[in-house]
Every structure is written in C-alpha cells, then in structure tokens.
Design brief:
Structural class: alpha+beta
Number of helices: 5
Shape: globular
Helix content: 25-40%
Largest sheet: 7 strands, antiparallel
Number of strands: 7
Order of helices and strands: HEEHEHEEHHEE
Oligomer: single chain
Length: 200
C-alpha cells in the first residue's frame, strides 16, 4: 500500500531529525534557500515519510505550520527538509513564518515508521501514537499524532476532525468507500524551556 520502509529511530537520530528540521526552517526563512542534509546518519537514508510541525510559544501557542507526507518516496533526510520548508511557507495553509518569529517557534518532527489501512479505526487507533489520513475520492486530509492528546479528543472526535480537514462528512470515516490510514510515527520535539529534545 505504501513504499515506506519500516524505520525505528534512536533518540540520537530523533534529536538530529529535529535539528535538521530547525536548520531547514531557518535556511528557508532567513535566506530563501533549501538546506541540504549533508552527510546523514544511516537511518536518514531510509525511504519513508516525515512530518514537521511548527508551534508558536507566544500567546496561546497557535500552530504556525504543519506539512509532510506519509508516503515514503525519498530518503528521510530530504523528506524532513521538504516538510520543514513547506511548514514554514504559506503552502501549509497559514501565513509564511517571518524571521522575527524563529526564536519563538518550537519544532517537532514525526518520522513515519509504518502505515496501516484499517477497516476498524476505533479499535485499531491508538491515541498519541497514530496520525490519521482520510481518503475519499479525490478528497484527502491528515492530522498529526499528538493533536488528539493535546486537545483531549476521543478516537471518534479525532477521526471526525480528520474528515473535516479532508472536506468530507464528519462521519465519513465510517463509510465503506472511505480509506482510513493509520500513520505510526515517532515524534520528537524541542522543549519549550530550551532543554534537550524530547521524544513523545
């Protein structure tokens, strides 16, 4: 169903994934350039998907951008850079990140370790571990694994929110013609106190 390889990152790899995402965001925002991963750790050559999420620490901590893909077609290092640039640009659905914001943005990276097409999402979905993608015809939407935990959503609420993002009925996840994909990923993020990267 997907070309993604099964990938499991060490903490050190996850720390580097977040660092690379941060470097890519800063290179894009400050210089309009695409960061090159350079010499990568072994895990970063695997062909798998990745997502990058940017959250502001100002005010109520709104999301500034989230982008990526769970369909792994390129090496992980490049997938992280591409997701980071898209998350920082207006392509992610928000406004472009500005240089003055960089010090007040927290970067997180979700590295896709596996994807599963499910016929029983309520039973198979594990909140906090799985992201969800919904496909119905030409409509598509997905949400990051940590979002339902942050918002206190139930499984059903999470599935309904992904449906809304895909611009289909909130109950479309129950329809036979809807494809529900569980995205199993490792999430690493910067701490808001400036400490070391944490794995969620």
């Amino acid at each position: 169903m997907s070309e993604a390889q099964t990938v499991q990152l060490t903490y050190e790899d996850g720390d580097r994934a977040v660092e690379l995402a941060r470097e890519a965001v800063e290179s894009y925002v400050l210089h309009g350039q695409r960061e090159h991963p350079g010499s990568m750790r072994d895990a970063f050559y695997a062909r798998t998907g990745a997502f990058v999420r940017l959250q502001s620490t100002r005010g109520r901590g709104r999301m500034r951008g989230c982008a990526g893909s769970y369909r792994g077609k390129e090496q992980l290092g490049h997938a992280i850079v591409d997701a980071a640039i898209k998350a920082a640009s207006s392509d992610s659905g928000g406004s472009e990140v500005e240089p003055k914001e960089l010090d007040s943005i927290l970067v997180s990276a979700c590295i896709v370790s596996n994807v599963t097409l499910t016929n029983d999402p309520v039973s198979d979905l594990e909140l906090g571990r799985h992201g969800v993608a919904i496909d119905q015809g030409d409509k598509h939407g997905w949400l990051y694994p940590t979002i339902p935990v942050e918002n206190g959503w139930s499984k059903e609420q999470f599935l309904s929110r992904v449906c809304r993002k895909a611009k289909v009925s909130p109950t479309a996840w129950q329809d036979e013609e809807t494809m529900v994909t569980l995205i199993d990923g490792q999430v690493f993020r910067e701490r808001d106190d400036g400490g070391s990267v944490e794995q969620l």
